[in-house]
Amino acid sequence: MFLFKLRIPLAPAVLLVAVLALGGCSTVASWVTPYKIDILQGNVITREQVQALQPGMPREQVRDIMGSPLLASVFHADRWDYIFTLQRQGQEPQSRRVSVFFKDGVLARHEADDLPSEAEFVASLDARRGQTGKVPPLEATEEQLKNFAERNKPQAPPLPASAAPAPSTTQFPPLEPAR
User: Fold this and answer.
1) Where do the domains of the chain lie, and which CATH numbers do they carry?
2) Composition bias, kind Low complexity: at what positions (predicted)?
3) Do residues 100 and 49 make contact, with C-beta atoms less than 8 angstroms apart?
4) What confidence tens digit (pLDDT) does each residue in 48-97 have?
5) Tens digits of per-residue pLDDT, 92-117?
6) Ramachandran bin of 115, using left for φ above 0, alpha for ψ from -120 to 50, beta for the remaining angles
């Protein structure tokens, strides 16, 4: 109704309102960001795993320690590559690599990036704890242990076989007719 009294053509007025509304979208878009999931790819590799590798280990033992390799090339049968990447919203991507070399079916050597310990890796996953720096205590008090023991008391042992009633025997017809 206001537009008709000022005798402003409708099309330019609508265009002006649209431009003003869309101009505000850039401000709102900077406040609101979409959720981006964490992308974890490859084998989790820690310093302790690499320290456990010893020259002369068979392939199976290396696989038990490190897991199955992410890359095992047909062209490089004596080399396994373990690659790990982690991308999280608001953080720099993490990338680690370990290459294991075999000779005659046993571990000859390995090459690795600078790797975190297992505790450092776990701490890097928990963003909330990483900000506060506190690790929650993982100890139970004597009272908690006592309550747990009371709730989980072993049940009475089963009756001996002599006291249990004998199972009834059932007669079944023969499988094939008698000849």
Assistant:
1) 39-132 (3.30.1450.10)
2) 161-173
3) no
4) 999 999 999 999 999 999 998 887 778 888 999 999 998 888 788 889 99
5) 888 999 999 999 989 999 999 889 88
6) beta
